[in-house]
Design brief:
mainly alpha
Length: 145
């Protein structure tokens, strides 16, 4: 797991949060991040994939979340919502990244940016979504034990 990818996720969560809160267009937010040099040390291509990929698939992502959350997705704390959306996007689309890495990164993002204890909520939901989205990977891993 590269630090540059971790940094890309951190920037993407912040950018997604901004998009959710302001509705500002994506390229405008991306330009702000570039101008402020907030992407230093981040894998820019991964940031772009996540930041543009989540809004493009937000309906699919929110549908996946709806099955496992205890309230409408729009009512989830905006920080947690950004973290969950990013992580679910990765679980669905980034099959080269092990599900455990994605969950771990999501939990760390919730610890970094979310309210106290939000990482437990994020962990529980991502674990359930991973069971559904990555069942083949999880079964293969369990069968090795």
């Amino acid at each position: 797991m590269s630090q540059a990818k971790t940094n890309a996720r951190k920037c993407a969560v912040q950018a997604l949060y901004q998009w959710q809160m302001t509705g500002k267009n994506l390229s405008g937010i991306e330009i702000d991040f570039l101008e402020e040099e907030r992407l230093k040390g981040a894998q820019k291509s991964y940031f772009k994939e996540l930041f543009y990929g989540v809004p493009k698939q937000v309906d699919v992502i929110d549908e996946a979340l709806t099955e496992f959350v205890d309230r409408p997705v729009e009512k989830i704390d905006p920080v947690e919502r950004a973290v969950l959306r990013l992580s679910v996007y990765e679980l669905i689309n980034c099959l080269d990244t092990p599900y455990r890495v994605i969950i771990n990164e999501g939990v760390n993002l919730a610890k970094d940016f979310g309210a106290d204890g939000s990482h437990k909520y994020v962990n529980g939901i991502l674990d359930k979504i991973a069971q559904k989205q990555r069942s083949v990977e999880i079964n293969a891993r369990n069968n090795k034990k």
